[in-house]
Design brief:
Layout (H helix, E strand, L loop, with lengths): L7 H6 L7 H14 L4 E7 L4 H11 L9 H11 L6 H11 L4 H15 L1 E6 L6 H8 L6 H12 L17 H4 E9 L5 E8 L18 E5 L6 E9 L5 H10 L16 E6 L2 E3 L7 H4 L4 E11 L6 E12 L12 E9 L1 H7 L14 H4 L9 E7 L2 H8 L3 H11 L2 E6 L2 E3 L12 H7 L10 E7 L20 H61 L4 H65 L5 H22 L11 E4 H11 L1 H6 L2 E8 L4 E4 L1 H28 L8 E8 L4 E6 L27 H11 L3 E4 L9 E5 L2
Length: 802
């Protein structure tokens, strides 16, 4: 028994699968590129438009006879012909149909339409023999290109530029028109091979695929050195115009080949409409690329770990931000730079699949958690970000040209494989990196894709699992695609985004700073205005009514400014409150997590237990609720900030309480906590509740990173068992607390970013935990610093209470 295939499957793989005429044309151009043609011609010839043909055919086939008079045909030409069609073709149309009966006229109309309205794609590449046509071109899903790619990958450093591999690209011609003519031939043959296909026959839903008549025929003689392929598509489905082809050239074909690669050999692609040349789209104007306000350049690769000798992924690069100058209209040359470096545990964490959390022993779910990272393959990416408001101030009269350029090239990151575009990434309706969604959620449109120009480069050889969907609407969903998107989002949202937010905060701070200046000016001007009004009243006693109105106006302005100051003060107070609530919220989140876990476990016990087994289940519930009660007691001193005051606090007691509260969690995750106290008790005048917040954050982080590190070790081939340890040392005499663990540690490259808001290498981390810790330490006059690196990683923190 075997599958039986109806002929209409071809229709569904061609006309109904390809989403746009632009994609269909691109598929034909890709075939010419794969044929190693040095130049490609695309010619669009439109006389009678497709919609005009359908209109006239409908009128001739209608119930009311149409009299094909000269007047009717003159109107038909005016209504249904492309304006630029030649007068000779229009006259031929009228001569063919004049005085004909409807049935005969319909035949002549169809013949005329097929002859004078068509699209041609011609190349001078390798061409195809009769055997090639039968064995490859007419074999749907042929692996010929895929085999060619594999052979060239092994034998030719430059041979990885094979763009097609699915073996169905030729069916995209069906999207453009119902009739296909292929004239082709390789070197060494004496005649052209001709293949004609009438796709309209596929409308017979009962036809089997072996009943669809397609056969190459011998064509005209050709010269000895002639080779190449001419694709001619007739019976077009869509209307074409000079404007639509020019728009396609500018918006799509100009981006077909990687425009950011200055070293690439440019594709010689010529377009014409009714024999008139059409510009193939402007090259990207590099002048504007240098006018960025934010920039990143990254590389994802694989390196050998010096200690373990194992291959591991690495994300390296740089992010830059052009610092605003003192004058808004000046283009600043001051640039803030920070390095991007993620490797080992940190990179595996941020690229891990959030649907598969870190596990206790690193075995169950470990492969799924890291799936796609090791097989993603190397890639590079570069992005240019523009602040439109700054650009408008800085560029003055040139802004109009810049705005047009940004409208053409912005849209996020374009993707290029082997130097040619992967559709539809960065198209007008494609937000593949969710930049607009993120900007909308944060109510900040700074990092939306309308302000991004850039690219990501992959290769067929280096990224074999990043495969196109059959409809050419992006990459197939796969773990590798998820890892690629996650890496790019991290660079944009966390690395570049932290620089953007940093200067947004500074700009806001400058704005608050100027409020005092404005307040001073308002008071001085108000006093001056009152003095002037008194003097005016003395000199012009007849204008008292006007002077009174002006005085009331000044008082209204003072009152309005007073209300504005109160609003600003309220916002400042709310900002402090939000900081506090964020810290409390993280504790509450942990409590809810534990409550959910305990409830689910207990319900599971009760459901699975028989009546005689209930007492052990109840004992388990009692023990776990005791742990939960300890956590709720921790929240008591952290309640409303208005009641908190600095008081003498035993820091050892805070740490002991927290470690005790985490006891069962440590048991579940096989973490060994160790608290060492020396030099007597460490007492400090601090806000007790905030000490709980500080160390709760650190403990929660350590639990995640130790568990994650065990998962990382679990995916390695011969890794020894991991003994997770958390070390806290309190030195009462020195007034210090040292907090560390033996997990993956902090990358020294992140030393200057670790306390920044929103910086995180957790897969779904908010990046506010250590930011809160830093601020709470500052509020309590506690020094905090990173421990010295050990074995290339920073193991933790040291707190100085004196």
């Amino acid at each position: 028994m075997a599958f039986k295939v109806k002929a209409r499957v071809l229709l569904e793989l061609g006309a109904e699968l390809i989403s746009s005429d632009g994609i269909a044309l691109y598929e034909l151009i890709k075939n010419a590129i794969d044929a190693r043609s040095e130049s490609i011609d695309v010619r669009v010839q439109i006389a009678l438009t497709p919609s005009g043909y359908r209109l006239l055919d409908h009128e001739l086939d209608g119930p009311n006879p149409v009299s094909l008079t000269q007047a009717y045909l003159d109107r038909a030409v005016a209504r249904c012909f492309e304006q630029s069609a030649s007068a000779e073709i229009k006259d031929e149309f009228k001569r063919l149909l004049l005085g004909k009966q409807s049935a005969a006229a319909r035949k002549q109309l169809r013949k005329f339409f097929r002859e004078h309205t068509y699209i041609e794609v011609e190349d001078w590449g390798s061409g195809m023999s009769k055997s090639d046509l039968e064995n490859y071109y007419l074999t749907v899903g042929t692996p010929n290109r895929a085999h060619q790619r594999l052979v060239e990958d092994d034998n030719d450093e430059d041979g990885d530029r094979v763009l097609g591999e699915k073996g169905i690209g030729r069916l995209s011609a069906m999207r453009l028109g119902n009739y296909l003519e292929v004239i082709t031939g390789p070197l060494g043959t004496t005649t052209w091979e001709v293949l004609e296909i009438d796709w309209s026959q596929l409308s017979d839903m009962d036809m089997d695929i072996d009943q669809f008549p397609v056969k190459p025929e011998k064509g005209a003689e050709k010269g000895k050195g002639d080779k190449g392929t001419l694709i001619r598509i007739r019976d077009l489905r869509s209307d074409w115009s000079l404007a639509s082809l020019s728009q396609l050239a500018e918006s799509e074909l100009a981006k077909l080949q990687d425009p950011f690669d200055e070293t690439a050999e440019l594709l010689d692609l010529s377009l014409s409409f009714n024999a008139s040349p059409v510009p193939g789209g402007e090259e990207i104007d590099r002048k504007w690329l240098s006018q960025w306000h934010g920039y990143f350049d990254i590389e994802f690769s694989y390196v050998t770990n010096e200690k373990s000798g194992e291959r591991e992924p690495a994300l390296t690069g740089i992010a830059k931000f052009r610092v605003p100058g003192p004058e808004p209209s000046e283009f600043s040359e001051e640039i803030d730079v920070h390095a991007i470096h993620a490797v080992g545990d940190g990179l595996l964490s941020l690229l891990s699949d959030i649907d598969y959390p870190a596990t206790r022993d690193g075995q169950p779910g470990a492969s799924s958690r890291f799936d796609g990272i090791d097989t993603l393959g190397p890639f590079t990416a570069r992005g240019y970000w523009y602040n439109r408001q700054r650009s408008q101030r800085e560029q003055g009269e040139e802004y109009t040209g810049f705005k047009r350029w940004l409208g053409q090239w912005a849209g996020g990151l374009h993707m290029y494989r082997d130097g040619f575009r992967v559709y539809p990434y960065a198209a007008p309706d494609d937000d593949w990196l969710e930049l607009d969604q993120r900007a909308l959620k944060q109510r900040s449109f700074k990092l939306n894709r309308g302000q991004f120009v850039g690219y990501v480069r992959i290769t067929s050889k280096g990224n074999p699992y990043l495969r196109d969907q059959t409809n050419r609407q992006g990459l197939c969903d796969a773990p590798e695609k998820r890892a690629l998107i996650t890496a790019l989002q991290y660079v944009i949202w966390k690395e570049l985004g932290s620089l953007v937010r940093k200067y947004e905060v500074k700009s806001a701070a400058r704005g608050y700073g100027t409020i005092r200046d404005i307040d001073k000016q308002v008071k001085e001007r108000s006093r001056a205005a009152r003095t002037t009004l008194r003097e005016l009243g003395r000199r012009a006693p007849g204008e008292q009514e006007t002077i009174l109105a002006l005085r009331e106006y000044v008082e209204d302005m003072e009152a309005a400014w007073s209300r504005a100051k109160k609003t600003i003060k309220t916002q400042e107070d709310q900002a402090e409150m939000y900081l506090h609530l964020a810290g409390v919220g993280m504790l509450l989140e942990f409590v809810v997590h534990e409550l959910t876990r305990v409830t689910n476990a207990t319900l599971s016990d009760l459901k699975s237990s028989q009546q005689s087994a209930l007492p052990p289940g109840l004992r388990s519930l009692s023990k776990q609720l005791q742990t939960l009660e300890k956590r709720l007691r921790i929240l008591d001193p952290v309640s409303a900030p208005g009641r908190q005051r600095k008081e003498d606090t035993d820091i050892g007691e805070v740490v002991r309480t927290l470690l005790d509260a985490h006891e069962q969690q440590f048991e579940r995750h096989e973490i060994s906590p160790n608290l060492t106290e020396k030099g007597g008790a460490l007492a400090a005048k601090v806000i007790a509740g905030q000490m709980y917040q500080i160390f709760e954050n650190l403990i929660s982080n350590s639990v995640y990173w130790l568990t994650h590190h065990r998962s990382v070790q679990g995916k390695k081939k011969n890794a020894p068992p991991f003994d997770a340890k958390l070390e806290v040392t309190i030195d009462g005499k020195a007034g210090t607390v040292t907090f560390s663990d033996n997990g993956g540690g902090i990358d020294p490259a992140d030393r200057d970013k670790i306390f920044d808001p929103f910086f995180s290498k957790k897969p779904s981390g908010r990046g506010i935990g250590l930011f809160i810790v830093k601020n709470l330490c500052k509020e309590n006059d506690i020094g905090i610093d990173l421990l010295p690196p050990q074995n290339g990683r920073i193991p933790g923190f040291v707190f100085n209470f004196k």
